[in-house]
Specification:
The complex is a heterodimer of chains A (287) and B (320). Chain A is 67% helix and 0% strand. By secondary structure, chain A is mainly α. In chain A, helix 4 crosses helix 8 and helix 8 runs antiparallel to helix 11. The chains are: A mainly alpha (287), B mainly alpha (320).
Chain lengths: 287, 320
């Protein structure tokens, strides 16, 4: 687009554009900055009046407390972190394989029912999986998976949005490469692993970002599918830590736990962002 | 790596037409010939069927029954729906709150995401990442984790940040109970949701806007387009229409499924049910009262609302 300065004249439009973007950006970041600041506040600063936005004497005490306190039961906090990491990585890892395998024939093969299956996936994007949680719960409890990791992984593997993005991305990859591999005598399975997967990299990164965020942040699965304390996930543990809604107790430890929860999602986004924007260019929907 | 394509070409579905649909045996042979394709699809389709298709059907069936998990479901016809729409005042209230919420956060969040994405696409590439991070990060934070900030910001005593500043500026004399006062509960939920609304749709817009072919703008200049807003209306918006539709669909789903933020900030049930949404009602009946049949009817209503609204949006935005 046009640069900031057109000819010799100062571009006031450009100046206000940056001013607005920066001010609004800082406003959006303010709650996060406040959380970081609170996480490092010593007790003496937590309950100051008048309240202070920034921390004066940062300390790691809150993080130490977090790892030492065990809540109402004897489950250490690190167990929740482990649970969340395990569940999220399984959903991301298996999800990528399941979705990539399905996206390949949907984008590149010409079998019967192809568009029917694809339309079904698009239809599934149009409603939230939350509306089918009752039958999902009944199914999980009937096959005896309550209080297992599988209960928190299996229902989330076939993710329509991620699968849709993969298929759309794969469509615009030229067939020539696939054909070349087939002429060399490669089986479809081999074509998939050797040609398709490397080319799908941007879409895989995108899938990883979205499915990691939703798996990591979702308190639902643990709330519904577990009764054991040591099967709880991080978001649920944080809820317990806060002592129920509306209670502002243990603010420092809570902020430390919340920070621990948010940092991984930001890191995953920073790592994947370039590839994600490549993929999202193909996210368009059409009648 | 290929980064640019015509969005139209990327989304066009080469319609699979069966040459002679009446001949089942021919179809069967086609299916058998593509055995490998179906094997690839199998894991996804099995999981998708088991955890999405079957549950949708089951929900509809369950919604006509009385089912409390302990006893077998008992068919009761339309009673659940009659109860929902005639006798359940709290549900009617929840529908009102959900719609009020959706009709504000839906359009406003959507417009905000598009305008910010457009503004970001106006600045040079190297600065874009910083701003993208500013606006996108709130949407990937968990509602649970952020509650520590909101509870403090909106706290009802004079230590609450908002109350403190308002008192200092002399706007109020007494602390205002943002999270307990039934007049302020919905606005607070809306503000927090808007803060988190620059999500997947925002990224789709951003990516779509970066990939509008440059020569379109040059052609526009030749045709007499002088201002940026003209570019926006005549060139940019039509070029990113598929992304706009994708973003709209996601926005409808997310604005109708407000749950986390409400439960975190005002609890379940909220004071006088002022923050009660369709989804909190569903959760209440399904996992607290264990009236699965009734809860399934709520789920069906929500399902129909989402699909219906999205069909409408497809009609508006989907045609070329």
């Amino acid at each position: 687009m046009t640069g900031l300065v057109k000819g010799k004249k100062v571009d006031w439009g450009g100046f206000f554009l940056y001013l607005f973007l920066t001010l609004f950006g800082l406003l959006m970041l303010a709650p996060l900055v406040y959380m970081v600041s609170t996480a490092f506040k010593p007790i003496s600063e937590l309950f100051l009046f008048p309240p202070r936005f920034f921390v004066m004497n940062p300390t790691f005490l809150n993080f130490r407390d977090l790892l030492l306190i065990t809540g109402t039961t004897s489950v250490p906090f690190s167990r929740f972190i482990f649970n969340s990491l395990l569940i999220s990585s399984c959903i991301v890892g298996f999800g990528i394989i399941v979705s990539a395998m399905a996206a390949y024939p949907l984008a590149k093969h010409n079998m019967p029912f192809r568009s029917a299956i694809f339309n079904m996936v698009v239809l599934a994007i149009m409603f939230s999986p939350l509306v089918v949680q009752i039958p999902q719960y009944l199914l999980i409890s009937k096959i005896g998976l309550i209080n297992t990791y599988w209960a928190m992984i299996l229902p989330y593997l076939a993710a329509p949005v991620g699968m849709f993005l993969m298929t759309q991305f794969l469509r615009q990859i030229p067939d020539a490469l696939l054909e070349a591999a087939r002429i060399d005598g490669a089986s479809e399975w081999k074509v998939f692993w050797v040609v398709v997967i490397p080319m799908l990299k941007p879409a895989i990164a995108t899938f990883a970002l979205f499915s990691f965020i939703s798996a990591w942040n979702d308190p639902y699965p643990a709330m519904v599918y577990t009764t054991d304390q040591d099967m709880k996930s991080l978001p649920l543990a944080i809820q317990t830590l806060s002592g129920g809604y509306g209670v502002v107790a243990r603010v420092g430890t809570l902020a430390a736990a919340s920070l621990l929860m948010i940092v991984p999602t930001i890191i995953v986004f920073i790592v994947t962002q370039r590839l994600v924007l490549q993929t999202m260019a193909h996210s368009g929907l059409k009648e | 790596m290929i980064t640019k394509t015509d969005p139209a070409a990327a989304t066009a579905i080469p319609a699979e037409r069966l040459r002679n649909p009446s001949k089942l045996s021919l179809l069967w042979q086609e299916v058998k010939r593509h055995k490998v394709s179906y094997l690839f699809l199998a894991p996804f389709l099995i999981l998708f069927t088991l955890f999405t298709i079957v549950p949708v059907v089951t929900s509809v069936v369950l919604s006509f029954t009385y089912y409390n998990i302990l006893e077998a479901p008992k068919f009761i016809g339309l009673s659940n729906y009659r109860l929902l729409f005639v006798d359940d005042d709290i549900f009617l209230k929840a529908i009102g709150i959900t719609l009020k919420f959706a009709f504000i956060t839906g359009p406003v969040g959507y417009a905000m995401a598009f305008i910010l994405a457009w503004l970001i696409s106006q600045i040079p590439q190297k600065y874009r990442f910083f701003y993208t991070l500013c606006y996108y990060t709130p949407s990937i934070t968990s509602a649970t984790a952020m509650s520590v900030v909101w509870l403090y910001l909106f706290a009802g005593d004079r230590k609450g940040l908002l109350n403190y500043f308002a008192a200092k500026l002399g706007i109020i004399d007494e602390p205002y109970l943002f999270l307990q006062n039934i007049n302020s509960i919905v606005p607070v939920i809306i503000i927090v949701s808007l803060w988190m609304s620059m999500g997947v749709g925002f990224l789709a817009f951003l990516a779509g806007l970066q990939n509008v072919p440059k020569d379109l703008y040059e052609a526009g200049e030749i045709d007499g387009i002088k201002y940026r807003w003209q570019q926006l209306i005549y060139i940019t918006v039509p070029s990113v229409k598929p992304q706009l539709l994708f973003g709209a669909v996601l926005q409808v789903v997310s604005s109708l499924t407000v749950f986390d933020v409400s439960v975190q900030l005002v609890g379940l049930p909220s004071p006088l049910y002022a923050g009660h949404t369709i989804l909190t009602h569903l959760f209440d009946y399904a996992f607290i009262k264990f009236e699965m049949g009734y809860a399934a009817a709520i789920a069906v209503v929500l399902f129909v609302m989402m699909i219906g609204l999205n069909r409408l949006i497809f009609k508006w935005l989907g045609k070329d």
